[in-house]
Design brief:
Blueprint (H helix, E strand, L loop, with lengths): L12 H62 L8 H8 L10 H10 L36 E3 L13 E5 L16 E6 L4 E5 L7 E2 L2 E2 L15 E2 L3
Antiparallel strand pairs: 1-2, 1-7, 2-3, 3-4, 5-6
C-alpha cells in the first residue's frame, strides 16, 4: 500500500537566516588569513633585503680596516706594484693578478687581513663565498660582487672622498645588480666613508648629480682610475 506523501517539516526562516552570518564570518576569516600570509611575506622580504644591505655595509667596514692596515704596511692600497711584496711576505701561492677585483682582493686574503666572509652578500640568487681559500678557490669566479678602483695612490695623495670599491655588480659584467639590495649600491670611499646610493630606472647610479661612472663626475677629481670589475 502506497503511503501518502509526507509534508516537509517546517523550517523556521530565522534558522536559515542565522546561517548566513556564519558564512560571512568564515569568508572574513579566510580573507584575513590570506592577507596575513601576504603581509608576512612582505615583512620577510623586507627583512631579507634590509639584512643584505646591513651585512654589506658591515663587510665594507671590515674591508676598509684591512685596506688601511695594508696601506700602512705597503704604502698603497693593493695594486700591481704591491703583488711581489705580498707574495714575499705571505709566501702565498694564491693568484694575485690584475685582471679583475677578485685578483686584487686576494692580496688581503693572502695576508690574512680578511677572509672570504667579508665578501658575502646574503641575497636571493647570489652565490656566496664558501670559505675555501685554497689555490683556485679563494674568491673564485662569481664569489665577489664588488668593483675595486686600483688606480689610487696612498693617503697623502689628496684623494679626498674618492670611490675605492662599490657594488653589488653582476659578476662578469659592468652592470649594477638591481635585485641584490633593492635597487641600491654601497660605495666605500678612500677616506673610509661609506654611502648607499639608489639606482636610476636605466640602471645607472647618480652621485653629485651625474652618473657615478662618468669620468667628469666630481667623485673622481678629474681622473677616472683603473676600475677592476668582479670576475
Amino acid at each position: 500500500m502506497d503511503l501518502p506523501d509526507q509534508p516537509l517539516p517546517d523550517v523556521p526562516a530565522s534558522s536559515v537566516g542565522a546561517r548566513r552570518p556564519w558564512r560571512k564570518i568564515t569568508l572574513a576569516l579566510v580573507m584575513i588569513a590570506i592577507g596575513g600570509i601576504y603581509g608576512v611575506r612582505q615583512v620577510v622580504g623586507f627583512l631579507v633585503i634590509h639584512r643584505a644591505e646591513t651585512v654589506t655595509v658591515g663587510n665594507f667596514n671590515e674591508i676598509d680596516h684591512a685596506l688601511l692596515k695594508f696601506e700602512g704596511t705597503y704604502g698603497n692600497f693593493p695594486n700591481e706594484e704591491t703583488i711581489a711584496k705580498v707574495r714575499q711576505d705571505s709566501q702565498s701561492p694564491l693568484d694575485m693578478g690584475t685582471e679583475n677585483s677578485n685578483d686584487y682582493f686576494r692580496q688581503l686574503i693572502a695576508l690574512d687581513m680578511v677572509t672570504e666572509r667579508e665578501f658575502r652578500l646574503p641575497a636571493k640568487g647570489i652565490t656566496e663565498p664558501d670559505g675555501n681559500v685554497a689555490v683556485g678557490e679563494a674568491l673564485k669566479k662569481g664569489e665577489c660582487r664588488y668593483a675595486y678602483c686600483a688606480g689610487w695612490g696612498n693617503v697623502s695623495d689628496n684623494r679626498g672622498r674618492r670611490p675605492l670599491m662599490f657594488g653589488p655588480i653582476i659578476p662578469g659584467t659592468r652592470r649594477f645588480d638591481r635585485e641584490a639590495i633593492n635597487g641600491k649600491i654601497v660605495v666605500l670611499f678612500a677616506d673610509g666613508h661609506i654611502e648607499r646610493l639608489r639606482m636610476e630606472k636605466d640602471g645607472s647610479v647618480k652621485f653629485h648629480g651625474k652618473d657615478l661612472l662618468d669620468p667628469s663626475n666630481l667623485a673622481w677629481g678629474g681622473t677616472l682610475p683603473f676600475i677592476a670589475w668582479p670576475e
